[in-house]
Amino acid sequence: MMNNTIIIDPGHGGKDPGGGSNEYWLEKEMVLKISEYQYKRFKELGFNVKMTRAEDVYLGASQRTKIVKESGAKYCISNHINAGGGEGAETIYSIHGDGKLAKAILAELINVGQKKRRAFSKTLSNSANLDYYFMHRQTGFVETVIVEYGFADNQEDTKRILSDWEKYAESVIKAVCSHMGHTYDKIVKEDNHDRWKYEGIKYLYEKGVLNDLEGWKEKINEPMPVWAVTLMLKEIYNQLRGD
Ligand SMILES: [Zn+2]
């Protein structure tokens, strides 16, 4: 049988917040959120899926790569947010691999609106036979792709990641599925995922409490500002009084 085990590696954790942090998130938290989303989605799609960490715990390089090596996975997706003055998504593959999955992931990220930076591999400066990144160097036969979703110190990337991180997380699922020839079922899952949320918005729209159905749908996962709450309560109050 084909190996359909995937391991997801949320970078950093515990005492190591990760350099891809800013005033809106810590890298370790953002990549855990992305990884948890992907864990659920891979499960739904019938993959055998594992994670290097499911909590805010610190993992040293050897501890982390041991988990990956012993996972029995075919692929490891190592999730990160970049920093250091760039813009856009990067995927990084081993110098010993063909980079096909990394390139497919980057292409899907671009498809859903992230800016393209590059897919690349890199050697240690003193050795042409060794990968630069320990996630490639020490993960044995598990093909690891490091995904850098964008730059925490870039304003546009920050905006995009805040509003579209779910889309970016999903694009990785799509790329892995098509790379492995696995069924990718998007629409049904997305429907189930958010239908109950949309129902609430639709109800209040039909009752005349909300006036911009599409606008509210787009902001479905955002907190509601105080002014909106007060206007809604005022509308409901007026309706109850019969004004
Ligand atoms: Zn990182």
Automatic annotation (TrEMBL):
GO CC annotation: outer membrane-bounded periplasmic space
GO terms assigned for molecular function: N-acetylmuramoyl-L-alanine amidase activity
CDD domains: MurNAc-LAA
Swiss-Prot/TrEMBL GO biological process terms: peptidoglycan catabolic process
Keywords of this entry: Hydrolase
Residue ranges occupied by any MurNAc-LAA domain in the UniProt entry: 65-177
InterPro entries listed in its UniProt record: MurNAc-LAA_cat, N-acetylmuramoyl_amidase_3
PANTHER family reported in the protein's UniProt record: N-ACETYLMURAMOYL-L-ALANINE AMIDASE, N-ACETYLMURAMOYL-L-ALANINE AMIDASE AMIC
Protein's UniProt name: N-acetylmuramoyl-L-alanine amidase
